Amino acid sequence: MISIEALNHAAGTTQILHDITLTIPRGGLTALIGPNGAGKSTLLNLIAAQADVQSGRISVDDLDVATTPRTQLAQRMAVVAQRSDIASRLTVGDLVEFGRWPHSKGRLTPYDRAIASHALEVFDLTNLSHRFLDEISGGQRQRAFVAMAYTQQTDWLMLDEPLNNLDIRHARGLMGELARLVREENRSIVIVLHDLNHAAAWADHVVALDAGRVAFSGAPDQVLTAEALSTLYNAPIQTHMIDGRKVILHHR
């Protein structure tokens, strides 16, 4: 599990996170939700050791992220950031194979290449494997980065808004594939989501942040209520059950 204790974080004089104490369970999909500027990406980056812990403690499966070598953490966690600055003249296949770096250090074995090839199939990228990143759409690029993280074969996947630029079919397909990874491969996933219906449909656990503080957390069926969401987003939100599933309405 991920354990967060008394976590604070500031950017200059601006306090981003305030005294976060939280447990994220292993073996499920945890959605981080909340309004813009709530601190979701900052929290994910701190968990994933993409930024230094200033105050407090974060441990992933009992490994302190502040003191554990990055090479060791890379075999436990794979990260897809909101922005990934990688050379555009890299092919999709090369990018996905790069996910094996923590294991192969650049010397790919047939086993490494087989894992990368499987990832291309899983994320519907095989036909794009020889295309350069600047020759494909933003949505296809996004799926390629998720495939690279999958290729890393870690227990934890940390994904910051991976549905950006994805159309309805591919967003649904990606969420379904992530749920399968949890169910069939025992992966643990932490994902920043803006679409509340994806959180309601696919998440096993939800953490809501507001102004750098935990507003609520728990099982979606219990915490994604009209009252809680309306307060969180400062907007009128309704919830309804349709065919046994919770649907969140916020359009009018």
UniProtKB/TrEMBL annotation:
Keywords: ATP-binding, Cell membrane, Ion transport, Iron, Iron transport, Membrane, Nucleotide-binding, Transport. InterPro entries: AAA+_ATPase, ABC_transporter-like_ATP-bd, ABC_transporter-like_CS, P-loop_NTPase, Siderophore_ABC-ATPase. It comes from the Bacteria. It is a peripheral membrane protein. One of its GO terms (cellular component) is plasma membrane. It is found in: Cell membrane. GO terms for biological process: iron ion transport. Pfam families: ABC_tran. One of its GO terms (molecular function) is ATP binding. SUPFAM superfamilies: P-loop containing nucleoside triphosphate hydrolases. Residues 2-236 form the ABC transporter domain. Belongs to the ABC transporter superfamily. This is Iron complex transport system ATP-binding protein. The lineage of its organism: Bacteria, Pseudomonadati, Pseudomonadota, Alphaproteobacteria, Rhodobacterales.
